[in-house]
Design goal:
About 40% of the residues lie in helices and about 20% in strands. By secondary structure, it is of the alpha+beta class. Helix 4 (about 60-70) runs antiparallel to helix 5 (about 75-90), helix 6 (about 95-105) packs antiparallel against helix 7 (about 115-130) and helix 9 (about 155-165) runs parallel beside helix 11 (about 185-200).
Length: about 425
């Protein structure tokens, strides 16, 4: 009980700080603590909040199912299980099975009159139809979700995404505008709006919209290893992560920036790049103009002497690996004034992590694995591998054969060069 009380105190503090990305996981974690303390009403409220923020995450429904079952609410648990199973099928690419599962909620008499879970069933049904290349049915399902909950911003984002896929940029722009009117902190809607602007030939507006979206994300700080001249550097990218890469340039100097997605595991990884000028304001951006539909490329003549910043972030929903190459006319090493330049000799891959607060270690890459230990505040560990977790985030594997989630520790060294494994 003492350990749970301490965890509650830390999670309450995290939620009060409003650190968006980590707050979402904090709701799930606090709900679990309440569940273990048999404070079921509070657990239910937190897991419901987690679903509201992330209606596409299977584990959120799994957590609420456990609470419903403990409270004896068997019918509600069953409805959530249909959505959970549908999301599992959708993640596996089985869209027909997903559609059947979501439809089970809609057709179940016990769901009649319940906005939750009915709205989430329609929301995810629309996603399933969109994934099966049926935009008309997707839009119909999204409209049903809007009829049930007209002020839920993520549904308008999904409508905009569907119109964007059809090339109807004006309707996409209108939908993204409505999403942002309801939730100005919905970062992905800024990315979607930027792509709609690109489709309409409004590149300066797109650049500003990409940058607005990135500024809302929680920066995941890692020590950047400067890339070698003209060579690709590989690193992990996850939702909410922001890399900043400073480099010095001269007026008129041509610079080329390229990114490519490395699909080592199936993922929805979509890098977005923004170039900030010497005054810190965005001067160019790109998404999806590289060698594939998720690669980026910028080619620009720098407007002034000074230090520029390349910002790399993520427009989609899962974790994966990305390659980056930044080439200047002199093909010089790109480095920050605060970071020593590389000697050019590849170093042995080393990665150390350190906890700023007490964090749990797991037996596998995900919070659904058992707790296998604790990393105390200030304690360090050595990493020898990485994997995409069941929650879509990167998890580090310690040499002690335990796992820790990458966003709860500080990583130092060439961490993203450690091997990717499938546990």
């Amino acid at each position: 009980t003492g350990a749970f009380t301490e965890s509650l105190r830390d999670l309450n503090r995290l939620i009060e700080l409003g650190d968006t990305g980590r707050t979402l996981s904090a709701y799930s974690n606090r709900g679990f603590v309440y569940f273990m303390l048999q404070r079921y009403d509070e657990a239910l409220a937190d897991h419901t909040a987690a679903i509201m923020h992330q209606p596409h995450v299977e584990l959120n429904y799994d957590d609420r199912i456990n609470v419903y079952e403990a409270m004896g609410k068997v019918e509600l648990a069953l409805l959530d299980s249909y959505i959970r199973d549908g999301l599992r099928s959708l993640d596996d690419g089985q869209t027909e099975e997903a559609i059947q599962s979501f439809t089970q909620v809609i057709s179940d008499p016990s769901a009649a009159g319940l906005i939750d879970p009915m709205m989430y069933a329609y929301y995810n049904l629309g996603r399933a139809y969109a994934a099966s290349d049926d935009p008309a049915q997707a839009l119909e399902a999204f409209q049903s979700a809007i009829d049930l909950s007209p002020d839920y911003a993520p549904t308008y984002y999904q409508v905009g995404k569907t119109y964007l896929g059809q090339g109807d940029y004006e309707l996409a722009l209108s939908s993204y505008a409505r999403a942002l009117e309801l939730d100005p902190l919905l970062a992905v809607a800024y990315f979607g709006r930027a792509m709609a602007y690109e489709g309409l030939g409004r590149h300066p507006d797109a650049v500003r919209s990409y940058w607005e979206g990135i500024t809302l994300l929680d920066a995941h700080q890692v020590e950047w290893i400067p890339p070698l001249p003209g060579q690709f550097t590989t690193f992990a990218l996850a939702p909410g992560w922001v890399y900043t890469i400073p480099f010095e340039g001269r007026a008129g100097e041509p610079v080329k920036i390229e990114t490519e997605v490395v699909d080592t595991v199936p993922s929805e990884v979509d890098p977005v790049i923004v170039l900030l000028g010497v005054d810190g304001q965005p001067i160019d951006a790109d998404n999806n103009s590289g060698t594939d539909d998720r690669g980026d490329m910028l080619a620009i003549n720098l407007p002034a002497d000074g230090w520029y910043t390349l910002v790399v972030s993520h427009a989609l929903t899962s974790t994966g690996m990305v390659r980056l190459r930044l080439t200047t006319s002199a093909d010089e090493l790109v480095s920050s004034p605060d970071l020593p330049a590389s000697s050019g000799t590849p170093a042995q891959t080393t990665c150390e992590i350190q906890a700023n607060n007490q964090v749990n270690l797991r037996s596998g890459p995900g919070t659904d694995f058992a707790i296998a230990g604790i990393l105390s505040a200030g304690q360090a560990g050595t990493i020898d591998a990485q994997a995409a977790g069941s929650d879509g985030l990167v998890w580090w594997h310690l040499v002690s054969d335990q796992w820790v989630r990458s966003d709860v520790v500080v990583a130092r060294g060439d961490c993203f060069a450690v091997p990717i494994i499938t546990p």
